[in-house]
Specification:
alpha/beta; 15 helices; globular; homodimer; 337 residues; 7 strands
Chain lengths: 337, 337
């Protein structure tokens, strides 16, 4: 019966629909019973219990989610990286010089080994050539068209279907309990905003991400925002805590990540008073998704690494590790494909 | 009775209860009948009429408000400027060298003529010395204490009481009609967030403003955000359109300003399709508040100038000018002092 009192939204909904109390336990149907699922439910119970020591007013119920590797697939490469590489190929006819210029040459040659060795400077050149020199509206159109047509090389589905069903359930469960769910991503803010509402139910104003500078200018007498090949803000590592303060202005009560870039976001969240929930997704399921660490002896990776150092810190600070293999009944939404 | 209808809940109630349209006109009791008041009511009618040509879904109902001179008094100086000057005086004992160093010397001498001639570089030095070198939490405490105790030199009231009652009514009226009201200010984002909820009913995450850089570091093992003497973002002129895209990601349907710094925000808003409302407050009431332009032959000013050029553009583009003297029955909330 106490379960009934767990949440405002769910209780109300259950009331309207006449659902039994057990329906609320089913808010996380894709989660196996275990420490991770229990931690989520217990946290929500604590912060929504009126009069309880850990009660949090609705206006302060903020939860932040990293995207790549936390909400959707980020291997073999970040989706936005895939987009950038495809754009290099699409734009190549306008840039004959790229045939002889790195890093474009390797991209056009499809040289995966060379691409795997790309430095940050290489990527900056690729992003500058593919993400700037157009208006914000033109960019949304180009990236939106790509997202509608591109397929993941292994799963042969649109990237926007390769989201983690258990995490969608956590977002819904938190929202049903009065939380606002923010995406706080190292990826491009403007890129993620294209599909955040449709895919995650997160409105564009709740997407905090990295951005390049924009310039206000005129085209045919109308004002436009022109995207410039110049970094404005990097929302990664300490930038995530800075970005949260800048864009949200409130400290989250719950934060979810999967790699070293999320460390400071979890630390910043955990430094607040009262009940806080910090969780990290561990990709330990090569069969259904991917397996990489290098924590826990899993294979190392350059894309979204979860180091042993981060694992040790998580244990020491009480950040909960979600095992994809053991905690999740399913990985992707069933309806998709 | 009309007082009853002033607020959000009540106006919504009026809709549910099928109350007559006149009830909605009473949402703006401090406004005299005229073009400005009519424009607001007609705009709201147009964007909320389901099935109408100008209907706007609730999730897109965004209204942006400049603060200084649009929502509260900004003469003889911006409130945050007053705070900075008071901080120079408060910090002077720790900086004996300021006695001989401009611009601090003039501030400490109370030399108003010299202060009136301060350049942007002078102000940058003052802001750097008074707004940086502390954590975000320390800054909120310092500025919050000042706001609780400072008084406006002419009106002898706390600055937070010197808000425009007619504009509070517009914000409430828009919110009652499904709008989210954002403050988009050239002033400091962190400064305005201290009182935005209490004074305007605007949550901190809906305050977009200028900011300095912050650095993630540790004090006694706890993470803090240290404010650095380095400009990060100037939310003024074109920066207001850029800031709206960056922080909100949606084009506003209504925008309110009072000076040249708001020009691009109104232009950006007006460049969208469908019904849009762009308004500028003209300070033409020396008796009850202040009178300055230099538009319409009013006295010139260095603080929040409304140029004749802006007035001409407003007429040409259909931006409505609000005459403080003629359109507003009252200026400040009655309850205050």
């Amino acid at each position: 019966m106490p379960m009934l009192l767990r949440t405002l939204g769910i209780v109300l909904l259950a009331g309207w629909l006449g659902l039994p109390a057990s329906a609320q336990e089913e808010a996380l149907p894709s989660w196996n019973d275990g420490a991770a699922k229990s931690a989520i439910v217990e946290f929500v119970d604590a912060v929504t219990a009126e009069g309880g020591a850990d009660f949090v007013p609705v206006e302060d119920r903020i939860a932040t989610f990293d995207q790549d590797g936390t909400l959707w697939v980020s291997h073999p490469l970040y989706t936005q990286g895939m987009f950038a590489l495809d754009r290099v190929v699409a734009l190549a006819p306008e840039h004959p010089e790229w045939k002889d210029q790195e890093p474009f040459k390797s991209v056009l040659a499809g040289d995966r080994e060379a691409m795997a060795r790309f430095t940050e400077q290489d990527w900056a050149k690729i992003i500058g050539a593919t993400h700037a020199g157009m208006t914000t509206e033109q960019f949304r159109k180009i990236a939106g068209d790509w997202l509608a047509n591109a397929e993941h090389p292994r799963f042969k589905r649109p990237y926007t279907e390769l989201v983690y069903q258990p995490m969608l359930e956590v977002m819904n469960y938190l929202r049903a309990n009065g939380f606002r769910t923010y995406i706080v991503t190292g990826g491009g803010q403007e890129f993620v905003r294209i599909y955040s509402e449709q895919v995650y139910g997160v409105p564009v104003e709740q997407v905090v991400g990295s951005s390049i500078a924009t310039r206000y200018e005129y085209q045919d007498g109308e004002p436009v925002l022109m995207r410039e090949p110049k970094v404005f803000f990097i929302d990664d590592h300490a930038g995530k805590a800075i970005g949260i303060n800048l864009f949200i202005g409130k400290r989250p009560y719950a934060a979810f990540g999967n790699s070293g870039g999320d460390r400071e976001m979890l630390e910043w969240t955990g430094a607040g008073d009262g009940a806080r929930l910090m969780m990290l997704v561990l990709h330990d399921d090569a069969e259904r998704e991917y397996a990489y660490g290098p924590a826990n002896g899993l294979p190392d990776t350059k894309v979204g690494a979860f180091s042993q150092e981060l694992m040790d810190e998580a244990k020491q600070k009480g950040w909960l590790v979600i095992s994809m293999k053991n905690d999740w009944k399913t990985i992707f939404p069933e309806g998709a494909r």
